[in-house]
Amino acid sequence: MHHRFQFVSTILLLCLLSCQTNPAPSPNDPAPARAPTSSRILSGTAPPEYAKLAAEVRAETERVWAAYERYAWPHDNLLPLSKSYRDWYAEPIFISPIDGYSTLKLMGLDEQANRIERYVADSISFDRDIDVKVFEVNIRVLGGLLAMYAETKNPAVLAKAADFGDRMLPAFDSPTGMPYYYVNLKTGKPSGAIVNVAEAGSYLLELGLLSYYTNDAKYYQTGKRATLALNTRRSVIGLFGRDINVETGEWTETNSMVGAYADSYFEYLYKAYLLFGDPELKEIWDDNISAIQNYLPDEQDSLLWYPRVTMETGEVTQTEITLWDAYFPALLVLADDVDRAKHAFNAWDVVVTKHGMTPMVYNYAADTVVNGYHQLNPEVIESAYYLHAATGDERYRTFARDYFTRLKECCRTEVAFTHLKDVRTGERDDEMATFFVAETLKYFYLLYGGSETVGLDTHVFTTEAHPFAKKDIIKAGERLGF
Ligand code: DMJ
Known about the structure:
Number of domains: 1
Bound molecules: 1-deoxymannojirimycin
Strand content: 5-15%
Low-confidence stretches: 1-36
Strand order of the largest sheet: 3-4-5
Shape: globular
Mean pLDDT: 92
Distance between the termini: 29 Å
Radius of gyration: 21 Å
CATH topology: Glycosyltransferase
Structural class: mainly alpha
CATH class: Mainly Alpha
Helix content: 40-55%
Number of strands: 18
């Protein structure tokens, strides 16, 4: 819900702020290709101190990438302390570069991005006898390849994306249509019948884009079938559990949440609706979000939390939240619920003020860190970015500026950035997740005004922050089969 006056004055303020280099839309501008857009989001320019920060983020990305190229190419992850690498499986599938490509390109690190494109087009093969995690490779590998194709229009890249998508599809060959946890890239053999909500239903964007670019609806239809199968298994009060058996459709863990374990499922309903305009997704989103807002919110001391509740009755079972849950304000912004987004973000501000960085698990009722591990995750900065875009409130940039300062203090190494074993002690681990370049650095850069061409008014970002221009996706229904 929003108040009309506040909405209009926000728009006017943002128009004034953005008119120098980024004109606000005029009535004569061509209509966006897709009808649904989030009306409150406008792009803007940043004050000079933030332009300096954007340049610093870009320089850090360049430094981190030089370390990856020197110590880890063509492996999956850089180990920033031992200056070495780790592969996810017995053979590398080039996850960091494919995932990082869209950030490098966005920042104008063209030579680095071109090296990745050439390697993908000329040298990489996915014909590997390894069981990969379907959810993770979808968002990082398929999503990254599609972002590379959107940028380059290189047919060899699309061929690799289609090849990868084809190798993923057997995972969805379950009695319910929801994907198995693993699939073997060479043989297509799926395995692992228990998946969580995010793993069951976060495929609409990547498979939809693959359908769009290849003009073959089978990918989107497969992803949508999984989403529909999941959605029909909600409880009588409209909530999901946490884990489900893809063969029987039975829930094996019945706590309901919006964050970790479920997050990108909700994200993809709304974002796929925004990008493709499939009206059925909006209906499902409306049902899903109203059940969430009926049962999950827990307001304590004026802070809005989203705990875990039982799917049958909505009773609170755990007041633990995870650092992944901090994506939710961003999603609320996108769905035009800016007031609730601001309210929910305040709770994260309190956690970060207390602990410096987001801890993996925090119990808000007991005010204790349950698990202090930190993986250089993007979510709280992603939400700051969305909220700044929607409100123009510099508070969100200040928040991110301070967070970036602490990130450098706690996690910056000689060559890159590294995880923390515990935010309370600052003890370091030796790992840099692929989403640090793909997402975290990208959202800092965008929030500091680093890009004039990519933003929330023009693009939809996948859960791994791969941006796709809304204007490029026209009459999606004809290609996606809805
Ligand atoms: C990312 O890989 C994706 O955003 C995913 O959906 C969950 N969160 C991680 C980063 O924290």
